[in-house]
């Protein structure tokens, strides 16, 4: 691990100043924010991240850890721990897909440490990204190439890839937020702003090293999830190589509004399959206004992968992903969703 | 296994150096509430390897340490304080051998910077038992059920198990397996671990 300056500002104002000063003072200096640390410390040990300054947010951002539901909007503090949110009664009963996406992620210890905001910003698990002895990684070293294309790529993405990067976004919670049209609140050097969660992550395109639309020094402070007729009938299905404590081979977040078996609204987001949190919009469009059964769910699942690009070792993900969508839709339809 | 217990629990025989009480403040406080940030932080040209002061409570005792900022809590516990119960397995948050209780919750000491544990309460396997010489019910249950073979993962398993019970996630063998999945046992003592946790869960009355 490279040596670094450590600071722990006690106010958010100091944190913002601190984060931006580090950037402006020295072109070589890189400031990184520390929240739960479960991604950052890991990647610093691997020498993938080499910040010259670590600004610890745990004293200054504590105010952003509340969980509140007023009947129309769920407000999740970005510094709330994953475990706390997963076990929250309002989240479990009104937004089951959020609770499930969190409790099926990582391990109990990691969920006690990791914050919601940090979880959303977790880096890819691409083995080539995580191992600097591989020179070619456009995420780590822009322009160096991609060792995963033509390498061992069973874990890699089939949706949203480019010829420069096929690294998977592995998060689970993000898929629930995609499905539920969440928004995020940010604070930074230029003040506070909000954006749709769907705008946070950037597809790799020609610039795989640019992963989010956050501006330098910006921090996610809160996540807003609107209540809707689909939120209680929602579910997260995660298919993995082992039963627990594993990243998804394919995962599906589904939220469904039904009248009888007729789909009045549906939201589908996919994890473990794409380079970013991924909304299967075409599949949703195909289902709206139709009866949900195995045939229509299968048709929607095929549609979701119409643009998929498989690599040498990950073509199986397309059929696994399709099966996961069908299963998630049918299981969600079978839920006894109570009206809030 | 048991022959190291006395060394680990006795505060008078640390394996390595540690500093208690009065401050040796080689490094200035990094941030003072009343001071502007720029003045309170070391300049970019300062020696990055200069130690930083950290105060941590471990097993109810205060420790004042002067540490490299890169040191993890796990290394601080083992190398600086001399508590070798927490084990280094993968050192990347994947195996659970380093699990300790921080402010009452199970966390991974290998992914925690020691400097960021400033002011927090840490409980290691050495500090789990109350006074009086009785083993914690979870430790006794692990012995009763032979819930280990080599024992390397056991301190992490036991602390994680205590937390699993306190969190209310030990209601069934299936729930125990799910909520203990962050602790890997290469000897595969899992059936006995689940049995031990089921027993201790009743005895802990939580």
What do you see in this structure?
The complex is a heterodimer of chains A (340) and B (206). Chain A has helices spanning 12-25, 40-45, 82-86, 89-94, 96-103, 108-113, 116-120, 173-179, 281-287, 294-304, 316-333; strands spanning 5-7, 31-34, 53-56, 67-69, 73-77, 183-188, 191-196, 219-226, 234-239, 250-259, 262-271, 278-279. With 340 residues, chain A is of the alpha+beta class. Among the domains of chain A are: 5-56, 2-Layer Sandwich (Uridine Diphospho-n-acetylenolpyruvylglucosamine Reductase, domain 2); 234-333, Enolase-like, domain 1 (2-Layer Sandwich), CATH 3.30.390.50. In chain A, the strands form three sheets. In chain A, strands 4-5-8-6-7 form a five-stranded antiparallel beta sheet, with no helix packed on it. A four-stranded antiparallel beta sheet of chain A has the order 9-10-11-12, with helices on both faces. In chain A, strands 1-3-2 form a three-stranded parallel beta sheet, with helices on one face. Chain A starts with a strand and ends in a 7-residue tail after the last helix. Chain B is an alpha+beta fold and 206 residues long. In chain B, strand 3 and strand 4 (105-108) form a beta hairpin.
Oligomer: heterodimer
CATH class of the domain at 234-333 in chain A: Alpha Beta
Estimate the mean pLDDT confidence of chain A.
Answer: 95
CATH third-tier fold name of the domain at 234-333 in chain A: Enolase-like, domain 1
CATH homologous superfamily (4th level) name of the domain at 234-333 in chain A:
CO dehydrogenase flavoprotein, C-terminal domain
Contiguous low-pLDDT stretches of chain A (5 residues minimum) are none
Sequence stretches where pLDDT stays below 50 over 5 or more residues of chain B = 1-45
Which class best fits the helix and strand makeup of chain A? Answer: alpha+beta
Widest sheet: strand ordering of chain B: 2-1-5-3-4
CATH class of the largest domain in chain B: Alpha Beta
- Secondary-structure content class of chain B: alpha+beta
**Main sheet attributes: strand count, strand direction, barrel closure of chain B:** 5 strands, mixed
Rg of chain B from C-alpha positions?
A: 19 Å
Strand order of the largest sheet of chain A: 4-5-8-6-7
Shape of chain A: globular
């Amino acid at each position: 691990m490279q040596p670094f300056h450590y600071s722990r500002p006690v106010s958010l104002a100091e944190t913002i100043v601190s984060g931006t000063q580090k950037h402006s003072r020295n072109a070589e200096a890189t400031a990184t924010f520390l929240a739960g640390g479960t991604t950052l410390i890991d990647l610093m040990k691997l020498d993938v991240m080499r910040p010259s300054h670590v600004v610890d947010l745990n004293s200054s951002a504590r105010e952003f850890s509340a969980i509140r539901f007023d009947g129309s909007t769920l407000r999740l503090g970005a510094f709330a721990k994953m475990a706390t949110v997963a076990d929250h009664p309002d989240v479990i009963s009104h937004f089951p897909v959020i609770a499930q996406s969190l409790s099926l992620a990582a391990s109990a210890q990691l969920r006690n440490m990791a914050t919601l905001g940090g979880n959303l910003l977790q880096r890819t698990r691409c083995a080539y990204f995580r191992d600097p002895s591989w020179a070619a990684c456009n995420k780590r070293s822009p322009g160096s190439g991609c060792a995963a294309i033509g390498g061992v790529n069973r874990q890699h993405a089939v949706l949203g890839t480019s010829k420069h990067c096929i690294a998977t976004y592995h998060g689970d919670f993000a898929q629930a937020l995609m499905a539920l049209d969440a928004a995020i609140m940010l604070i930074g050097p230029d003040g506070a702003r909000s954006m749709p969660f769907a705008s946070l992550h950037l597809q790799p395109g020609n610039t795989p090293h640019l992963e989010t639309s956050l501006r330098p020094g910006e921090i996610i402070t809160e996540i807003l999830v609107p209540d809707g007729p689909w939120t209680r009938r929602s579910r997260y299905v995660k298919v993995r190589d082992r039963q627990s404590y594993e990243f998804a081979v394919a995962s599906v977040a589904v939220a469904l509004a039904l009248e009888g078996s007729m789909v009045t609204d549906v939201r589908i987001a996919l994890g473990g399959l794409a380079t970013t949190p991924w909304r299967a919009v075409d599949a949703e469009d195909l289902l709206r206004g139709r009866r949900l059964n195995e045939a229509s769910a299968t048709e929607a699942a095929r549609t979701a992968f119409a643009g998929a690009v498989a690599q040498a070792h990950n073509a199986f993900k397309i059929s696994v992903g399709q099966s996961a969508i069908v299963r998630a839709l049918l299981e969600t339809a079978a839920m006894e969703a109570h009206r809030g | 296994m048991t022959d190291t217990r006395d060394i680990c629990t006795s505060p008078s025989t640390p394996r390595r150096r540690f500093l208690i009480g009065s401050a040796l403040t080689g490094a200035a406080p990094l941030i003072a509430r009343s001071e502007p940030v720029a003045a309170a932080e070391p300049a970019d040209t300062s020696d990055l390897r200069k130690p930083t002061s950290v105060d941590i409570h471990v097993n109810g005792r205060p420790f004042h340490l002067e540490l490299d900022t890169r040191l993890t809590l796990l290394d601080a516990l083992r190398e600086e304080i001399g508590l070798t119960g927490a084990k280094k397995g993968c050192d990347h948050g994947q195996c659970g051998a380093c699990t300790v209780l921080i402010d009452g919750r199970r966390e991974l000491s290998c992914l925690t910077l020691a400097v960021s544990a400033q002011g927090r309460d840490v409980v290691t396997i050495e500090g789990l038992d109350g006074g009086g010489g009785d083993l914690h019910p979870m430790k006794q249950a692990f012995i009763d059920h032979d819930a280990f073979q080599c024992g390397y993962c056991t301190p992490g398993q036991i602390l994680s198990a205590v937390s699993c019970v306190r969190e209310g996630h030990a209601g069934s063998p299936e729930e125990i397996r799910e909520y203990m999945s962050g602790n890997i046992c290469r000897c595969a003592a899992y059936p006995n671990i689940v049995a031990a946790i089921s027993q201790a869960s009743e005895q802990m009355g939580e």
